[in-house]
Amino acid sequence: MKEKRLNKKTKALVAVILSFALLLLSACGGNIGDIGENSVETEQDDHITVGFSIDSYLIERWQRDTDIFAAKLKELDSTAELNLQNANGDIDTQKQQIKYLIDKKVDVLVVVCIDSESLTDVITEAKSNGIPVIAYDRLIKDADVDLYISFDNEQVGILMGQALVKAGLPNKKVIMLSGPNEDNNVSLVEKGFKSVMEENDIEIVDVFHTPGWRAEDAATYVSEHITELGDVDAIMCGNDNIATSAIRTLSEARLAGKIKIVGQDADLEACQRVVEGTQVMTVYKPVEKLAQAAAEYALALAKGEALSNVTSTMSDGSYDIPYYFLDPIAVTAQNMDETVIASGFHLKEEVYMNISN
Ligand code: BGC
User: Fold this and answer.
1) What does the angle CA 348 – CA 349 – CA 355 come to, to the nearest 5 degrees?
2) End-to-end CA gap in the chain
3) How far apart are CA 79 and CA 243, in angstroms?
4) What per-residue confidence (pLDDT) applies to 109?
5) pLDDT computed for residue 256 by the predictor
6) Residue nearest to atom 3 of ligand 1 (CA)
7) With a 6 A CB cut-off, is 178 part of the ligand 1 pocket?
8) Protein residue with its CA nearest to atom 6 in ligand 1
9) Whether residue 284 has its Cβ less than 6 Å from ligand 1
10) How far apart (Å, rounded) are the C-alpha atoms in residues 109 and 4?
11) Measured in angstroms, how far is the CA atom of residue 342 from the centroid of ligand 1?
């Protein structure tokens, strides 16, 4: 990594010396053609290139994450380039795309991993090529990344659990339709949620891990377990997309509204359901703040600068890595206006679209 940073600085110095020589030569009327060309090449090579590898755009939030990241990067450095690769949910594709970004010699790599445990080798390869790595939103295990930036995922689960307890769980029974185990966030959210259930003596009747975050599978689970769901008070959904599928399936069985639902991401449809009363709460994670901070840190790492305001660490299984996290916010019908709407995450008229005054 150091070698690469030095290279950049050395190149910049060479560019300055060459420009100076160029000036001198032109003043002396010498032949400057070759030197001029070289100096242009050096300047172009000096642009920072950020490689970004994303799981997929299956879930609403990720478009916002990457759009804001790109905008912030341009704002901070108009010459910086973003090379964005979408793996469409396929682990092998993600590995190949990261290898491609390594070959392209990007200055920093930002990764939303599909599987927290299968990128160790390719990330180690990036690092040994002098490319610093940011694990964005999801931790990458055993890879000693330079930064893990996310929301406090355990707190996400705690907020979901607290909202359900507050809404009332008379039968003391809940079901969890979680995300896939490959996503490290899932176990963190579950840990938080389970702690609240335990404190309040609530039984977790079943936990289903939706493969690849595919909500159709959660819907299938709900329809196959519809009778058992009769005496369940609530379903903790791993995200709002799963909540959408679960609620649709429940309404086909006329159970919508009888079973309390929570989710996360503050997807527009979920926010609409929250104000309409068919979803108890969602967890709002201000992804704009996350994406902006990630863009700042990506540039700092590319330039070999220290990361400011990163005071925590998290174990990735083998190493304690710098961890920057933001707080998630519980959103109910009561605080929708001062959270999701006040921040501009969604427009008021969209959230209240189905509610007539
Ligand atoms: C994120 C959620 C998202 C899910 C599916 C998780 O890692 O924390 O916000 O809904 O992935 O993309």
Assistant:
1) 105
2) 59
3) 41
4) 98
5) 84
6) 239
7) no
8) 185
9) no
10) 14
11) 23
Structure tokens at 109: 């790599």
Determine the angle formed by the axes of helices 61-76 and 287-302, rounding to 10 degrees. Answer: 40
Q: What phi and psi values does residue 4 have, to the nearest 5 degrees?
A: -65, -45
- How confident is the model at residue 288, as a pLDDT? 97
What global pTM score does this model have? 0.88
- Distance of CA 183 from the midpoint of ligand 1 (Å): 8
Whether the CB-CB separation of 210 and 238 falls below 8 Å is answered with: yes
Give Rg (Cα) of the chain: 24
Identify which of 131, 125, 163, 169 has the alpha carbon closest to the alpha carbon of residue 143. 125
Query: What is the residue whose two structure tokens read 């100076």?
Result: 20
